[in-house]
From TrEMBL, chain A:
Organism: Pedobacter kyonggii
Protein name: Zf-HC2 domain-containing protein
Recorded superkingdom: Bacteria
TrEMBL record, chain B:
Species this protein is from: Pedobacter kyonggii
GO biological process: DNA-templated transcription initiation
Protein name: RNA polymerase sigma factor
One Gene Ontology MF term: DNA binding
Domain RNA polymerase sigma-70 region: 22-87
Pfam families reported in the protein's UniProt record: Sigma70_r2 (PF04542)
Similarity comment: family membership: Belongs to the sigma-70 factor family. ECF subfamily.
Keywords (A to Z) from UniProt: DNA-binding, Sigma factor, Transcription, Transcription regulation
PROSITE patterns associated with the record: SIGMA70_ECF (PS01063)
InterPro entries from the UniProt entry: RNA_pol_sigma-70-like, RNA_pol_sigma-70_dom, RNA_pol_sigma70_ECF_CS, RNA_pol_sigma70_r2, RNA_pol_sigma_r2, RNA_pol_sigma_r3/r4-like, WH-like_DNA-bd_sf
Length: 95, 199
């Protein structure tokens, strides 16, 4: 029984796929107490996944900023806009 | 002396004026759509459909939100329709194959350890100082555009629009376990793409 637990811990300690999955899940949802413990064990021994975790959070913030920044506003084609305005006007006149 | 009353301005904004829509909001709505569906032509059509749908529903506009918020909400629904039609075109097998293929690349199949070329290295973006970096932003955008369409939809809905997991799963008709797998793979993929193009 004890041996099994040790193997389990070993598995967790080396499994970066599982750890990064839990990191992502924790950021936006809930993970169980057991999962929290597993993640903690993993991160204590794995600097690479700690780096992943930090970068992951920055990516989320950056993505939000990228999409919402006024400086990133794209311009819609002027001719398309003109045609669109005409369509709107003609609908308005019908009413 | 005439002073502009800011309060008055706000009230003014909550009135509806379709004649000024294109001028005021077309670029904004267009950008909003392009960032979320990554298709300029389709985004253009969605903007037009949004204005036309808004015209039909003018009387339902209650002035509680601004015109801009109201139009954005209409567009948002249309974007989800696009997401839905994109994901309904995918069979379960394709979704699964996308997921498995990426998995093999990133992690060792036996022990789940990082494969060499995807192992996270410090990039100098681990703190929020990186948020000011325009080059980083440009690369991230390019990397987002390379994600499979369904992954980009899930990523945008969750991380940018902060929708609930339940809503995303029901709108895109994916199981919650697939949702979490996609959230994970999308991030691992984005991060790896950033690293590859940053150095």
């Amino acid at each position: 029984m004890k041996e099994l637990t040790e193997t389990e811990i070993k598995k967790i300690a080396y499994n970066c796929r599982k750890a990064t999955y839990l990191i992502e899940k924790q950021q936006i949802g809930k993970i169980t107490l057991r999962e929290k413990l597993e993640l903690k064990i993993h991160l204590t021994g794995c600097a690479i996944c700690v780096t992943f975790m930090r970068q992951s959070a920055v990516i989320n913030q950056m993505a939000r900023k990228l999409v919402n920044a006024d400086s990133n506003t794209l311009k819609l084609d002027e001719k398309f806009k003109e045609r669109m305005q005409k369509r709107i006007n003609s609908r308005l006149n019908k009413n | 002396m005439l002073q502009k009353d800011p309060e008055f301005d706000t009230i003014d904004k909550n009135a509806i004026d379709p004649h000024s829509w294109v001028n005021k909001y077309a670029d904004y709505l267009f950008s909003y759509a392009v960032f979320r569906i990554n298709d300029q032509e389709q985004a253009q059509d969605l903007v037009q459909e949004t204005f036309l749908a808004a015209l039909e529903r003018q009387e339902k506009f209650e002035g509680r939100s601004s015109e801009k918020t109201w139009l954005t909400a209409i567009l948002k629904n249309k974007i989800v329709d696009v997401y839905r039609s994109r994901s309904s075109g995918l069979s379960k097998e394709i979704i699964q194959a996308d997921i498995e293929r990426s998995d093999e690349d990133f992690f060792d199949q036996n022990d789940g350890h990082w494969n060499d070329q995807h192992r996270p290295a410090k990039l100098g973006i681990e703190t929020s100082d990186a948020l000011e970096n325009k080059e980083f932003e440009r690369i991230l955008k390019a990397c987002m555009d390379k994600l499979p369409a369904l992954w980009l939809s899930v990523f945008s809905m969750k991380h940018i629009d902060e929708e609930t997991t339940e809503l995303i799963c029901s709108e895109l008709k994916i199981s919650s376990s697939n949702f979490w797998v996609i959230i994970h793979r999308a991030k691992v993929n984005l991060r790896s793409c950033l690293q590859k193009n940053w150095i």
